[in-house]
Write a structure and sequence with these properties.
The complex is a heterodimer of chains A (390) and B (222). Chain A is of the alpha+beta class and 390 residues long. Chain A is 18% helix and 50% strand. The longest helix of chain A is centred in the last third of the chain and has 39 residues, at 351-389. The longest helix of chain B is centred in the middle third of the chain and has 34 residues, at 62-95. Classes of the chains: A alpha+beta (390), B mainly alpha (222). The A-B interface holds A 259-263, 317, 320, 350-352, 354-355, 362-364, 366-367, 369-371, 373-374, 377-378, 381, 384-385, 388-389 and B 57, 135, 137-140, 143, 149, 152-153, 155-156, 158-161, 164, 168, 171-172, 175-176, 179, 182-183, 186, 197-198, 201, 205, 209, 212-213, 215-216, 219-220, 222.
């Protein structure tokens, strides 16, 4: 009997002790006031601006503006039909202390078209109603811009040419891991890949690379970058066509004079640069059938700026009967590409070659005259002897 | 001698007809050869100067030696030609039963050399006019060790346009005056060796024509 009474007293004591706790979870005027001081202190999207199809995160900062009272939240979520939540909502209780900020991070994705969207962030209080906030986000499909600033008028097989390009970011957010890659069949490029890194909104950066083509082809310029964690790329075709560069240096040989000394031909002349670019390391030498001889087997004229000129002298020997020899003129452009041109130089105006050119005819005349004189002499005597015999 | 020197040039038959009646004398023929030799030596001096210039780089003093050699060669060559031509005429005329001394033949050839003086003077004038225009290549010591180089240099020298023209002119002059001399020699040999005009023409004509044909051949191959 005494035991039953004791158990009843204990149960009643426990019920009494629980009652104040039950009374605290109830909505009270104080808790409503306290929840009214809770506000969204910020939202951050990564990426800041989405492409259609991008995924990313949104971070919501919730601040408890009460200076002496905590609030308890037990559910947080964000999203709508355009900005889809791809992670789980917050479903556990969390206590936000006075003047403290709680961070809520969500994964989101969008397949929406370009535009501005307002997904709703909702936060439920344990002791009050919920908090709703529209977190604005933009979807913009404007890609990076890749443009050719300067390129040669034409390419030459095996010759290195420099191409200047510009990468610009017309978007309203920063993109990262920007990489330019140049590829193509039958070409070698330096560098093949250029890492640019992050490119802020509205920024632009100039780049250059060289292409050495072996065949006429099309180079593919691929600009890849990340918008948040989403990879994107754009491409640009650069036709590689062979032809004559209108601006290239154009050394021309003139004022050529040929002399012989001790069987060695001395060819002197001028080299004029009729092009629009500087011709570096201009060299002149004689080719076969000529055999270059000292002292000027090869003459280095040096660098010739546009409209500049320099003199040269080359010495060589050659076989008899040769009336002209090819003279090779070579120069380098600023990239070190070697260009060669061959000019025929007539050497018939000096030495034995001169006689070979017109020799056949000029030798015939005196020979004919000599034979005529001999015939007149012999004929005259034959006539004289016959007349005297008769 | 009752006839003048002019008769040698225009009436050689009459001149030698009279000359054979007189005593053999080589005084005037030697004078003619000497004069021709001196003119040839002057021409040789000029032409030798070209060769000397070509060899100037080989050794100092070589120019003088070459020039003097060219002069002596031209002078002595004229004397040698006198004797060689006389010997050939004498030999051929002997085969044709010719009679008369070798001195007579020397005398005839000496007189017949008179047109050659004019020819030598013309050659000298041509040399004076053309030599300054000739480009002379210079041989170096190193080039002397290479026979191909020497040949090439010599060819270049001989094929210089001015040099070629000079060679053509002097060769034609030599042919003309050599035939003129041959004309005189035929009449001279006829009288000196007692040959018929036909035999005398064969005696002189064959070697002289062969000689001028050789000159003509050289003219064609330069």
């Amino acid at each position: 009997m005494r035991l039953n009474r004791s158990l009843t007293i204990i149960c009643m004591f426990l019920l009494v002790s629980i009652l104040p706790g039950i009374a605290l979870a109830y909505t009270t005027p104080e808790s409503i006031v306290a929840s009214g001081n809770v506000y969204i202190s910020g939202t951050v999207y990564d990426p800041e601006v989405f492409f259609t199809g991008d995924s990313g995160t949104v971070t919501v900062y919730v601040t408890n503006g009460n200076s002496n009272q905590s609030v308890v939240v037990n559910h947080a979520t964000i999203g709508d039909k355009n900005i889809r939540l791809t992670s789980n909502p917050y479903d556990t209780s969390a206590n936000i202390g006075p003047l403290q900020t709680q961070t809520f991070i969500f994964s989101v994705a969008t397949d929406a078209f370009e535009g501005t969207y307002y997904p709703t962030f909702s936060l439920s209080f344990r002791d009050a109603d919920s908090l709703y906030y529209r977190a604005m986000v933009k979807v913009d499909n404007t890609p990076l811009e890749l443009s050719i600033l300067d390129k040669p008028d034409a390419f030459t097989q095996g010759k290195k040419k420099t191409i200047d390009v510009q990468v610009a970011n017309p978007r309203k957010n920063t993109v990262t891991n920007v990489v330019l890659e140049v590829t193509g069949e039958g070409i070698s490029t330096t560098p093949e890949r250029t890492f640019i890194g992050a490119l802020g909104a509205g920024e632009k950066i100039p780049l250059n690379f060289t292409i050495t083509p072996e065949i006429a082809t099309t180079a593919l310029l691929t600009l890849s970058y990340n918008n948040g964690d989403n990879p994107h790329k754009i491409t640009l075709n650069l036709p590689i066509t062979f032809g004559v560069d209108k601006k290239q240096a154009n050394p021309v040989i003139s004022n050529v004079q040929v002399k012989t000394d001790a069987g060695i031909y001395h060819v002197t002349g001028d080299v004029n640069n009729a092009g629009l670019e500087t011709a570096n390391t201009v060299m002149v030498t004689a080719l076969a059938p000529a055999v270059p001889q000292d002292p000027y087997k090869t003459y280095v004229v040096g660098a010739l700026k546009p409209d500049d000129f320099g003199s040269f002298e080359i010495t060589f020997t050659t076989d008899s009967g040769v009336t002209g020899i090819p003279v090779e003129l070579s120069y380098k452009d600023t990239d070190g590409n070697i260009y060669t041109t061959v000019h025929d130089v007539k050497i018939s105006s000096s030495g034995e070659a001169a006689t070979k050119a017109g020799g056949a005819f000029s030798n015939m005349l005196p020979v004919a005259a000599a034979i005529a004189i001999i015939l007149i002499f012999v004929g005259g005597w034959v006539y004289y002897l016959r007349r005297n015999r008769q | 001698m009752s006839t003048s020197v002019i008769d040698i040039l225009v009436r050689p038959d009459a001149f030698f007809s009279n000359a054979m009646a007189e005593k053999e004398s080589l005084k005037i023929p030697a004078l003619v050869i000497l004069t021709s030799g001196i003119v040839a030596a002057i021409t040789g001096y000029l032409m030798g100067g070209l060769s000397a210039k070509m060899m100037a780089g080989v050794m100092s003093g070589l120019e003088v030696i070459i020039t003097l050699s060219a002069m002596a060669g031209a002078f002595i060559g004229t004397l040698i030609f006198w004797f060689v031509a006389s010997g050939v005429f004498y030999l051929i005329s002997s085969l044709l039963n010719g009679q008369g001394s070798f001195t007579r033949v020397l005398q005839v050839v000496g007189y017949g050399y008179l047109p050659q003086i004019a020819g030598s003077i013309l050659t000298l004038v041509a040399a004076v006019l053309y030599i300054p225009r000739i480009t002379v290549p210079t041989l170096t010591k190193a080039a002397l060790e290479d026979p191909a180089m020497i040949e090439q240099v010599t060819k270049a020298f001989m094929h210089d346009p001015a040099m070629m023209e000079l060679t053509q002119i002097t060769t034609l002059v030599s042919i003309v005056f050599m035939l003129w001399s041959a004309h005189i020699w035929i009449f001279g040999i006829k009288h000196a060796r007692g040959l018929s005009p036909r035999d005398a023409a064969i005696c002189v004509g064959i070697p002289v024509v062969l000689y001028v044909l050789y000159l003509t051949y050289n003219l064609g191959v330069i």
